[in-house]
Amino acid sequence: MQGDRRPSGSEADESTPLLDTRNAVPPSYTNTADTIVENGICSRISSTVLTSEEDSTLVTLSRVSSVPQGLEVEPSLERIPSAPEPNKQAVKDPEHNCPGDNTGYASRFINVSPMRFWLIFGGVLMGYIIGFFDSTLMASSHPVITSHFHASNSASWLSTAFLLTSTAFLPLFGRVSDTFGRKPVYLFAIAVFFATTAWCATAQSIGSFIAARAFCGLGAGGVFSMGMILSSDLVRIEYRGVYQSYINLCLGIGGCMGLAFGGIICDTVGWRGAFFVQLPFIFVYFLVAAWTTPANLGMKRARSERMTVLQLIKSIDILGSFLLVTCVTALIMGLNLGGNVYSWSHPLVISSLVLSLVIAVIFVRYERTVERAVMPITLLSKDPRASLIFGNFFGSISVNTMVFNAPLYFQAVKLATPTDSGLRLIAATFAVTISSVSTGFLITWSKRLKPTVIIGDVLLLLGGCAAASMDVSTPDILAMFCVSISSLGQGFSFPSLMVSVLATSEQDEQAVATTTLGLWRNLGSVMGVATSSWIFQNTLIYQLQEMVTGPEKEHVILLVRKSVQAIAKLDPMHQAQVIAAYAAALRVTFLSAAVWGAFMFLMHVRIRLPRLGTKA
């Protein structure tokens, strides 16, 4: 049939000139770079640009429904390169919507340009400076505040209220920001910090001021935890140590500013002015955070599962959060009030500690059954993260044992004034600042985590032993050095532990891992103060009973236990006896810091930590 007749070569050549095998001339084409966008990812591809004559030929070819059998496709067509698939791994820059630079300085950051990162991170650093200025400001201003309200016996509640909320709610920020995204939670924390700082400045009673400090702790805790979470979201783990060093530096700056200028501000403009002066800086901090923080940061789960706001709220571990907050609150109240405000046998202290233990058992059993637990039990049950977190807890006890009791050594044993004892601790402040900043750069350069962790652990152990050797005859310079060893260890170990926990966690676990580590570090701080106070007070009572003599023995013991300043007013005999008793009690207390440092070392020496990529 005519419809089935196979065309001859000449007919085929006439109808499809591009298939002419007799006078074929290979078409020329030029490769140029072009850009396509697929699924929001920019990719560079190679495209083919043809001449107008060749373009018309291709149009003619496109009209042929099929290539007749027996004819070969023009060989030159086989050389036309096909467009490669877009690079799905290209790093997207949300600002410019173009491929990120995977090499050089920009490779340090995740999904953000260097300029955008520094705008965000600059706000984070600003928050740390303000937050630590506020916390250390209370150390110098609380006597003035309690005297203003005629409530000196309530001084301990100023720090207790702040510590309760800043610690108890810490893990919630990680999980809630995983649910709703980083930006709204971050801005909420800053707004609470601003409002409660204003409340502190305008409080009209001691009860109102304590309540303000409690809510201020909630805001400050959110600022600190969200700052760490944002850093882990935006910086690759290989370079996290460097930026952790910047954070540590700002912590030192904020703390020093609070100690240095807190008293001056209170003396010049009053204690209310010390809070009012923070408000403009917090407001600017809020504006910077609102402007620079990406709105979609941390929204991975909400986007992937397309959950509504109500579904997101229901997905939060509300019962677990309540149990955790209640447990931590009861524990901190018992530890902070016992031996400080009330005796350890007081019903409130005992009931608080028992309640925290019971709730802790219930919390652990419940969290094992929850899909998205506020504190995943695997963090506390599987190495290496469990050893890192608990070692961090023991290290925090050791550090705070030293920090809390070192001023007492200079005032009670060396008879220095509070101002002089503070100046003698400057060396320790410099030690922790220098070592913490250096640690970040060492981790980034070596790509190794364990060496700096172990160095810090050993220094904490040696620092406790060195301080335990101090007595009345120890020169001031040597005493300052002994106290600084533990601070040096803190600077090496704590930043390393933070990076280690993040390096051993998946990306979607890093927020809750960060806040869990912070929670146990804060609990260690409370335990350090509570346990060292208990050890010191009981040892001091024993030593005073053994060393103080004479008919005025009981009166002298009662006097020097109430006020350290009373030691300088004693007669030479009793003064020497009391100083010897204080020195002996402090040696035992500092030795306990060495024991906690040893526990920290044992927790960390047996674990293996990953290396952060390949050393450049």
Task: Summarize it.
With 616 residues, the protein is mainly alpha-helical.
Strand-residue fraction? under 5%
Looking at this structure, what is the CATH superfamily of the largest domain? MFS general substrate transporter like domains
Helical fraction:
55-70%
Q: For the report, how would you describe the main beta sheet?
A: 2 strands, antiparallel
SSE succession: HEEHEEHHHHHHHHHHHHHHHHHHHHH
- What's the total helix number? 23
Domain count: the total is 3
What is the CA-CA span between the terminal residues?
A: 74 Å
Shape: globular
Radius of gyration: 33 Å
What features would you describe in this structure?
The chain has 616 residues and is mainly alpha-helical. The protein is built from 23 helices and four strands. The radius of gyration is 33 Å and the shape is globular. Mean pLDDT is 76; it is low at 1-101. It has helices at residues 9-15, 52-62, 114-148, 155-168, 170-180, 182-202, 206-234, 240-269, 271-276, 279-292, 300-305, 309-315, 318-337, 347-367, 378-381, 385-413, 418-424, 426-446, 450-468, 476-503, 510-547, 553-562, 572-605; strands at 29-38, 41-50, 92-93, 98-99. It is 69% helix and 4% strand. The chain folds into three domains: 2-90, no CATH class; 109-300, Growth Hormone, Chain: A (Up-down Bundle), CATH 1.20.1250; 382-616, MFS general substrate transporter like domains (Growth Hormone, Chain: A), CATH 1.20.1250. The strands form two sheets. It has a two-stranded antiparallel sheet with strand order 1-2. The protein has a two-stranded antiparallel sheet with strand order 3-4.
